[in-house]
């Protein structure tokens, strides 16, 4: 859930597990500076060929590959291939390498993650505490750790699990709220619904839900990250990387960093979650085969610097946004397969269709934007 242009804020969940009622308002190419890894080997004792550092153990999909660090100038956009769950048969299968020094390397994004956060109460009590914790963290001879942004944290979310993270790569990972270094744009500008607020993007790692409406003064966990060059400050607006999109054919837009090719428009009408796969598989736009995007793929379209809609409006005209207006992903809620995950481009917050009528997460039907 979230709060948009003129909307009211809502908290992401109850005791870090389930969403509560709240308000809401108004592939194929190689990314610039990175290449997607097709996978790694299992955590069970074999080493991965991808990655750098000490010989480590891999976790993820079949095959192996190596990524090239991105230097697009932004941490708030995905300048890397977005991982999908290992074993799903989708491109960019999640793959990790334990470097043996407290760091886990993502073989798809090239990001290097703190394996087991050693935070104390003061580190997680506030946003500033989390920033200080990561800034002061030293692991494996590296001291350039930071709090991950919204889209970086999204890259390790696995919606097929609860907690929503690979437990082999990140053993004993906690659920509940996890911080990001993405301040909400209306809070940055102190305008509209953000005036007087201290909201930043948050992930509920129990299930993978994200919201822009979480107070920086509230407690939350943090998992630090490093890599992929320089990027925005936490309180700076997202800066779109150069040459981000290309209209490669009528109605098709390629993201030159993630490699994903998107339907520029969307479905002509809303539909049930179960109907979305057939819509995309029969789209036949320019003779190509499309599918419903995963949740993490959908998150790459969110422009944190905008609201209502929070997307590049030139490349994706007519994108809908507002209370109860969601776009389907291909993924069902892990605890109830009849409830699908969706994203609301009012701000870019996510949810699964489980709310009572008029609740922020009540969307029995939604729009569809296909991908290939």
Structure in words:
With 372 residues, the protein is mostly beta strands. The chain has 2 domains: 170 residues, no CATH class; 108 residues, no CATH class. The chain has 6 helices and 14 strands. The strands form 4 sheets. A 5-stranded antiparallel beta sheet has the order 1-2-3-4-8, with no helix packed on it. β3 and β4 form a beta hairpin. The relative contact order is 0.17. About 17% of the residues have low confidence.
Uncertain runs: 4-65
Oligomerization: single chain
Give the helix proportion (percent range). under 10%
Report the total helices.
6
- Helix-strand topology string: EEEEHHHEHEEEEEEHHEEE
Mean pLDDT: 85
Distance between the termini: 27 Å
Instruction: Give the structural class.
Output: mainly beta
Placed side by side, the strands forming the largest sheet appear as: 1-2-3-4-8
Secondary structure: number of strands: 14
Shape: globular
Overall tally of domains: 2
Question: Could you list some keywords that capture this structure?
Answer:
2 domains; 3-stranded antiparallel β-sheet; 372 residues; globular; 6 helices; 14 strands
SSE order and pairing:
Blueprint: E1 57-60, E2 95-98, E3 103-106, E4 112-114, H1 121-124, H2 127-136, H3 150-154, E5 177-183, H4 185-189, E6 199-204, E7 209-215, E8 225-226, E9 245-249, E10 252-255, E11 261-263, H5 276-281, H6 295-299, E12 327-333, E13 336-344, E14 349-352
Antiparallel strand pairs: 1-2, 2-3, 3-4, 4-8, 5-6, 6-7, 9-10, 10-11, 12-13, 13-14
Short structural description:
The chain has 372 residues and is mostly beta strands. The chain has helices at residues 121-124, 127-136, 150-154, 185-189, 276-281, 295-299, and strands spanning 57-60, 95-98, 103-106, 112-114, 177-183, 199-204, 209-215, 225-226, 245-249, 252-255, 261-263, 327-333, 336-344, 349-352. It folds into 2 domains: 57-226, no CATH class; 245-352, no CATH class.
């Amino acid at each position: 859930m979230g709060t948009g242009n003129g909307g009211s804020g809502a908290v992401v969940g109850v005791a870090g597990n389930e969403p509560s009622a709240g308000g809401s308002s108004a592939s194929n190419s190689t990314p610039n500076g990175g290449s997607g890894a097709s996978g790694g080997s299992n955590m069970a004792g074999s080493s991965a060929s991808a990655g750098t550092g000490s010989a480590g153990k891999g976790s993820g999909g079949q095959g192996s590959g190596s990524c090239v660090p991105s230097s697009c100038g932004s941490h708030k956009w995905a300048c890397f291939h977005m991982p999908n769950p290992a074993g799903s048969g989708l491109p960019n299968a999640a793959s990790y390498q334990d470097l043996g020094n407290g760091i886990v390397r993502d073989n798809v994004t090239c990001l290097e993650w703190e394996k087991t956060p050693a935070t104390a109460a003061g580190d997680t009590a506030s946003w500033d505490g989390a920033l200080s914790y990561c800034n002061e963290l030293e692991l494996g001879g590296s001291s350039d750790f930071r709090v991950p942004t919204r889209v970086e944290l999204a890259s390790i979310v696995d919606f097929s699990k609860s907690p929503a993270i690979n437990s082999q790569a990140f053993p004993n990972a906690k659920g509940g709220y996890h911080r990001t270094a993405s301040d909400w744009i209306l809070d940055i500008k102190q305008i509209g619904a953000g005036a007087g607020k201290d909201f930043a993007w948050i992930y509920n790692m129990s299930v993978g839900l994200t919201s822009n409406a979480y107070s920086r003064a509230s407690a939350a966990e943090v998992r630090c990250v490093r890599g992929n060059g320089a990027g925005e400050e936490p309180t700076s607006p997202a800066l779109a990387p150069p040459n981000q999109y290309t209209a490669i054919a009528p109605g098709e837009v390629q993201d030159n960093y993630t490699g994903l090719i998107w339907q520029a428009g969307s479905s002509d009408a809303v539909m049930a979650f179960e109907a979305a796969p057939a819509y995309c598989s029969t789209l036949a736009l320019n003779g190509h085969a499309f599918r419903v995007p995963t949740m993490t793929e959908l998150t790459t379209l969110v422009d944190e610097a905008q609201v209502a809609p929070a997307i590049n409006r030139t490349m994706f005209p007519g994108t809908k946004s507002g209370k109860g207006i969601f776009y389907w992903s291909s993924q069902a809620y892990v605890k109830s397969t009849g409830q699908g995950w969706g994203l609301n481009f009012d701000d870019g917050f996510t949810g699964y269709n489980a709310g009572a009528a008029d609740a922020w997460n009540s969307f029995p039907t939604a729009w569809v934007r296909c991908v290939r």
